[in-house]
Amino acid sequence: MDLTSHxxxxxxxxxxxxxxxxxxxxxxxADERMRRGAIVAxxxxxxxxxTAASAIAAIAALAVPPHWxxxxxxxxxxxxxxxxxxxxxxxxxxSDDESEDARRAAGRSxxxxxxVAAVTIANGGDNLSVYIPVFxxxxxxxxxxxVVFSVLTVVWCWLxxxxxxxxxxxxxxxRYGHLILPGVLIAIGFLILF
Length: 194
Description:
By secondary structure, the protein is mostly helical. The protein has one domain (3-193). 85% of the residues lie in helices and 0% in strands. The protein is built from nine helices and no strands. It starts with a helix and ends with a helix. 32% of the residues are buried.
């Protein structure tokens, strides 16, 4: 394959396997307790881990059993249930409690990075199933894939953030954003598991 073919292939592979991450990123950016930097760092960490695991598996010529990635669905499912529980439990709180929660969340940037990374990885079963054979087909192209995936991760983060900041998207997110993230996490968890 030539350079142009590799560029197109890597862009299509990323877009096809990460369209669901765009929905997740939008939901994360809509949650006012989440720090933007933590979301971006977590997304990079998650995509990086999936890419590295796929490259290692391709190099080692390992086959990932098809049912293993689906078990990762428990991670977003449990996180979504936890966030829903926090939402239900916190509905009776006053604004002082909410501002205190926001201050505590801001202090937990590292845990937010890990949460976004864990959800990205858990949601990456389709990534593994596509990346491994594509990488195994041409190991020399893996560095190019890494560059394209990095650039497209920036684009995905920008698109997720832009939707939340767009007047139409912002209106929806202001009204329903606190409900969307737990729902999206629970739905993705079920989709991955089943």
